[in-house]
Design a protein that fits this description.
182 residues, OB fold (Dihydrolipoamide Acetyltransferase, E2P), 2 domains, 3 helices
Length: 182
């Protein structure tokens, strides 16, 4: 029978634990800083989100990524033609020829949502009631609504049925919210 007598030095054990914890914390901080800076570089170069040579169809899967990219880099998307589906949504201070082509974005696990979308202009906008689902084709230009805003000048609009995938989700992991973005 072997008997090992192990004597534990409490001070050494505490110092070793403290040093290991500090190293682990430093590694975690470095990873977070790397992701923040790497993410900001990739999000500032999102102009590849929509190629500018044809009518670009926005899907439910990329809706919020495109919406964010266009809002963050309006000048890169001026003149781009887009096509997408949403419902007509109006707020009180919009002009008669304006509406938001909206989608409900799920923001929590209990299906709380917020309304997101593109501001659109169409001469016969009043022909479409609120909450009517439509498919639009239009061209992005830089306008003003409480500051610089991408506005879609609608060239074609059709009423459609509510899609099965009516909800959209927040931008993917390349989206890093900062205090400057509201």
């Amino acid at each position: 029978m072997f008997v090992f007598n192990v004597k534990i030095n409490g001070k050494k054990l505490f110092k070793t634990f403290l040093i290991c914890s500090m190293i682990l914390l430093l590694i975690i901080v470095c990873i977070v800083i790397f992701r923040i800076f790497n993410g900001s570089k990739s999000s500032s170069n999102n102009s590849t989100c929509l190629p500018q040579n044809k009518v670009n169809t926005i899907s439910t899967g990329n809706y919020t990524n495109v919406l964010k990219a266009v809002h963050d880099n309006i000048d890169d998307y001026v003149g781009v033609k887009i096509n997408f589906i949403g419902y007509v949504y109006r707020v009180l201070d919009l002009k008669d020829n304006q509406f938001v082509l909206a989608r409900d974005m799920i923001i929590s696990s209990d299906f709380q949502s917020v309304i997101v979308g593109f501001l659109c202009e169409y001469e016969k906008a009043n022909d479409f009631k609120d909450n009517t689902w439509v498919e639009i084709t239009g061209q992005i230009y830089k306008g003003s609504y409480h500051g610089d805003m991408p506005i879609v000048k609608v060239t074609k609009i059709n009423e459609v049925d509510k899609p099965n995938d009516e909800y959209v989700y927040p931008p993917d992991e390349t989206y890093i919210p900062t205090s400057g973005i509201i």
